[in-house]
Amino acid sequence: MTSEQQYIELYREASDLIKGKSCAVMNAVRDEAFEAFVSSGFPTRKNERYKYTDVDAAFAPNYGISLSPLTVKPSTYIYNIKEAPIDVTPYYHQVADKTDAITALNTALVHDALLVHVPRNQRVEDPIVVDNWLRGTAATMMNRRILIVMEQGADATVIINDHATDKQRFLTTQVIEVYCHDNARLDLYEIEETTPLCSRFSNVYIQEGRDCSVKHNSITLFNGQTRNLCDVYLRGENSEVTLNGCAIGGGNQRIDNNTLIRHEVPDCTSNELYKYVVDDKAVGAFAGKILVEKDAQKTTSQETNANLCASSDARMYTQPMLEIYADDVKCAHGSTVGVMDESALFYMRQRGIPEAEARTLLKNAFMGQVIDQIQLEPLRQKLYVKVEKRFRGELDKCEDCHLCK
Amino acid sequence: MLEIKNIHAKVGEKEILKGVNLTINDGEIHALMGTNGAGKSTLSNVIVGNPNYEVTEGSITFNGQDLLAMSPEERAHAGIFMSFQAPIEIPGVSMTNFMRAAVNARREALGREPLKSTDFLKLMREKRKLVEIDQKLMNRSVNEGFSGGERKRNEIFQMAMLEPTFCILDETDSGLDVDALRIVAEGFNKLRTQETSAIVITHYQRLLDYIRPDFVHVLIDGRIVKTGTAGLALQIEEQGFDWIKEELA
Questions:
Q1: Would residue B185 count as lying in a domain?
Q2: Which of A58, A131, B19, B67 has the most CB within a 10 Å radius?
Q3: Residues 29 through 58 of chain B touching chain A, CB cutoff 8 Å
Q4: Residue of B nearest to A356 (CA)
Q5: By the 8 A CB rule, do A250 and A280 touch?
Q6: Range of the domain at B67
Q7: Distance between CA atoms of residues B100 and A293, nearest Å
Q8: Same domain, B1 and B74
Q9: What are the tens digits of pLDDT across the range B140-170?
Q10: Which of these, B53, B81, B84, lies nearest to B68 by C-alpha position?
C-alpha cells in the first residue's frame, strides 16, 4: 500500500464523521479536495516544488487522526470558523493552491478552523497570539487550518507558535490563507519550536490588494522535519511583501522552505531574506521563486538566501529563481553557502575565547541579521535569547510551553 | 619567560622556519627584523598556535609550560597576546560582546568570577582612553568599517583589556601615520610592566624610537642569523639586509 492509500481509505471511512464535526463552508469544498488528492497522490521529488522533501516517507507511518474540537480562548479577533462574524465563503479554500496535494489532503481531513478577522480600519495594538500545542498519548496527525482576513485599512500582528510534547510523534499539515484588503498591514510570525519527532507540512497563501504591506517571518528553531511553503499573490498596485526566514538545524533535522512571490500588477515591492545555519547532519533546503508577470512593470524585488554549513556532514540546497515577463523592473536574487570563517575563529581564540564559544558567537552573529529585522521589540529580544540558547544547545524543548515544564 | 628551541615549521608543504632559537626573559623587548618571507609572521603564528602552521621539530616553553601542547585559547589565558598584522573583521559580533567574552573567558580560566557588567564597562572606558579609541567603534562589529589606523589601535586596546605578560606586535606600525604611531607605541609603553616581554616585528626603525628594544634579531630564510642591540636596527635602516647576507655567504 502506498502511503496515500491509507489516507484515501481513512477519508472513505471517516468522511461522514469529519463532516459531522465540521461546518457547511468547509464541507462544501471537502469532496472536491479529496478527489484532487486521489488523482494527484503525494508529490514525488520529480515535482519541482517538492524536490527536497520525501513526502511519501513522512506520511507513511500510521498516525491516528485527531478530531478533537478546536479550543479557542475567547478573545477579540480570533474565532472558531463556526462562529465567524463574517461570511467566510469568499475566503475559505480560495487563494490556496488547489493542485497542491498537501493542501488538498488538509482540506479533505480538517474538521475545524481558526479565523482571525480584523475589521475595517481597525488597528490592533497588541499582537494576536495563536499557540498550537501538539499533545497526545499516541502518534497523531493534526490537520490545522487558519484563515486570516484583514479588512480594508486593518492593521495587526499575528504570532503563531508551534510547541509539542516530547516523546511522541506528530505529523502536522497546516494551511493558512491570508487575505489583505486594500491598505491593510499584517506582520505574521510563525515560530516552530517542536521536537525531533515532529513532521510539519505547512502551506501559507497570501493575497494582497492595493497599498498593502505584509511581512511574513518563518522561524524554525527546533524541529524534526519541516517543509514550509509560502505563496504570495500581489494583486493590487503599490503593495509590498517581505518574507524573512530563520532556520536552524542540527542533529538529523530537515528544514525545507519553498516560496513563490507572484507580481501580477505594477508598482509592487518584494523583499526576501532567508538564512540557515545547519550543523551536525542536518539538511536545509531553500527554493524561492519571484515571478514578475507581463503587466507588473516597475516591480522592485530582492531575494537573498545565505547559509552557513557549520559541520562537514551538514547539507544545504539552495535555489533562488527569478522569472520576469515585464521589461521595466528592478530585480535581484542571490544565494551563498559558506563554512565557518576560520580566520575569525582563530582571532577569537587568540583573545582567549574558547573554540566552542567562538563558534556560537559566529553562528549567532550570522543569524542576527534576520532577527534584527523583526519589528516587534519584545519578540525580537526574546528571539535573540532563544537563538543564542539554541546554538548553545540549551533549547532542546519548547521552554515556554506549560506542557513541557 | 619564553624559550624557543630549534623550531622548524611549515605552512602547507613549504618549510618556512628552519631551526629558530630564541630566549626571552621577563621584561625584555626583542625586535625581529628581516626581509619579506623570512619567517617573522610564521614565528609569531607558531607561538600563538595558529592551526594553519605546523611545527615539525623543536620546542617552545612558556614559563616552564610546554606551549606547543596548548590550544590557542589556553595560550591566551596563560598571558600571550598577538597584535595581528591584518586584524580580522567579524561581522555581527560587536566589539563590546567580543571583549566581554574574551575578558571573562580568561577570568574563568584563572578561576575568577566574571566581571559585573558595570565594572566591565568601566574597564572598557578606562582602556579606551589609553589608545584614544572612539566609543562609537565599540558598538560596531569587530573591525568592521574600521580604518587601517583604527584597527591597529583596536589591537592595542584589546591588549590593554587582556593585560598579557607576553606580547607580539606583528607590524603594528605598518600603515600608521606619525600621530597614530605615537599613540599606539605610547599606549603599549603605558601598559608595560616590569615583567612584560615582547617581540616587536617591524620593517622600520621609527617604531623602535618609541619602543626601545633590548635586542634586535635578524631573521633570514627561516633562521636567526644575527643578533645585536638597538644599534643594529639603525644600521639596517641605513644599509638594508644585503651586508648581512654577504657576511653569511
A1: no
A2: B67
A3: 48-52
A4: B73
A5: yes
A6: 1-79+165-179+198-249
A7: 51
A8: yes
A9: 999 999 988 899 999 999 999 999 999 999 9
A10: B53
DSSP count for chain A of H helices, then E strands: 7, 18
Say which residue the cell 619579506 belongs to.
B36
Show the DSSP H helices in A280-405 as ranges: 342-350, 355-371, 377-391
Query: Which residue on chain A is closest to B97 by alpha carbon?
Result: A361
**Could you read off the pLDDT of A240-252 as tens digits, one per residue?**
999 999 999 999 9
Q: Looking at beta carbons, which residues of chain A come within 8 Å of B87? A: 347
Report yes or no on B189 lying in a domain: no
What three-state secondary structure class fits B44?
Answer: helix
- Say if CB A390 and CB A221 are below 8 A apart: yes
pLDDT tens by residue, A373-402: 999 999 999 999 999 999 998 875 545 544
- Give B-chain residues touching A365 at CB under 8 angstroms: 90-93, 141
pLDDT at A237: 97
Do B227 and B116 share a structural domain? no
In a domain, B223, yes or no: yes
Question: Domain check: are B113 and B61 in the same one?
Answer: no
Question: Cell digits for A76?
Answer: 477579540
A interface with B, Cβ–Cβ below 8 Å? 341-344, 346-355, 357, 361-362, 364-366, 368-369
Contact B164, B192 (CB under 8 A): no
State the nearest Cα–Cα gap between A355 and chain B, in angstroms. 8
Question: Do B142 and B211 fall within a single domain?
Answer: no
Q: What is the CATH number of the domain that holds B40?
A: 3.40.50.300
> What residue of B is the nearest CA neighbor of A357?
B101
Query: Where are the alpha helices (H) located in B192-241, listed in sequence order?
Result: 205-210, 230-239
> With left for phi above 0 and alpha for psi between -120 and 50, is residue B106 left, alpha or beta?
alpha
Q: A144-148, A399-403, B159-163, B244-248: which has the minimum mean pLDDT?
A: A399-403
Give the DSSP letter of residue A75: B
Q: Which residues, other chains included, contact A180 with Cβ-Cβ below 8 Å and sequence gap of 6+?
A: A150, A154, A186, A206, A207, A208, A209, A212, A214, A239
B206/B223 same-domain check: yes
Q: Is A136 helix (H, G, I), strand (E, B) or coil?
A: coil
Residue B74 domain flag:
yes
Do B69 and B119 lie in one domain? The reply is no
The size of the A-B interface in CB pairs under 8 A is 79
**Model-level ipTM above the cut of 0.85:** yes
| Chain B nearest C-alpha distance from A342 (Å) | 9
Instruction: Return all residues near A165 (Cβ < 8 A) that are at least 6 apart.
Output: A133, A134, A135, A136, A195, A403, A404
Residues B64 and B29 in one domain: yes
Query: pTM of the entire structure?
Result: 0.89
